[in-house]
Amino acid sequence: MAWYHRRICLDNLKEIEYKDELLWLDSITVENQKNYQIWHHRKTLVEKLNDPSHEKEILNEVFEEEPKNFHAWCHRIWVVRRFSLFDGELDYIEDKLKEDIRNNSVWNYRFFIINNSILTITDEIINSEINYALYKIKQVPFNESPYSYIRGLLKPISNILKYSEIKSTIEEIIKEFPECYHAISLLLDWYIQIKDYKVSENLIDDLCKIDYIRRKYWLWRKKEFVNLV
């Protein structure tokens, strides 16, 4: 209520300008970056000023201290979408992944950028993004984020077979790292989609041993097709 009351005061006190309020907010944002009310207040001020010119700068300061701050990434998504500030964002993402390839927030942000900065998602773009994720998987095979990224890219696609590089790359990963359950799980998705239930059953048996903490989940998945084997 205090933040809401503050905005009511701002709307009625003509001697205090929104830009001055935003400057004051800059002084406390980084130190209080996990307070969602601060981010909502920023959003309201930027909207009223219709000026996002300072937002990426303050966000970069926040990410220096907390690279996975959920509220900050949500704010960046809002700013970029609201004011069409997509230019340079893929380069920014690449820099962030070089800092920490396991930063799932950056992977989520890349998914947002790809799906919102391009008018038409073509097969060429999907293939390029899949190869990008596979390259990152080769660098750090036990990092779950690029596997999830590939799943997101494939969700609206019915014909997974035209992306054969997924299967070949993942099989190479499993050959080198037999206990990489992220890779086995993605390979399982492949075989289920092509309805090879015998291989799928064998992969789930492997997952029950390797990913034991989620054994009940994998057994539940197995019930989906056990009668079709």
Any descriptors?
229 residues; mainly alpha; Serine Threonine Protein Phosphatase 5, Tetratricopeptide repeat
Order of helices and strands: HHHHHHHHHHHHH
Largest sheet: none
What is the helix fraction of residues, given as a range?
Answer: over 70%
The CATH C-level name of the largest domain is: Mainly Alpha
- Give the oligomer, counting copies of the same chain as homo and different chains as hetero: single chain
Low-confidence stretches: none
CATH topology of the largest domain: Serine Threonine Protein Phosphatase 5, Tetratricopeptide repeat
Query: What's the total number of strands?
Result: 0
Instruction: Please state the overall shape, judged from the principal axes of the Cα atoms.
Output: elongated
Rg over alpha carbons: 22 Å
Q: Approximately how much beta-strand content do the residues carry? A: under 5%
- Counting helices, strands and paired strands, the structural category is mainly alpha
Description of the molecule:
The protein is mainly α and 229 residues long. It has two domains: 1-85; 119-229, Serine Threonine Protein Phosphatase 5, Tetratricopeptide repeat (Alpha Horseshoe). It has 13 helices and no strands. α7 (104-116) runs parallel beside α9 (144-154). The N and C termini lie far apart (59 Å).
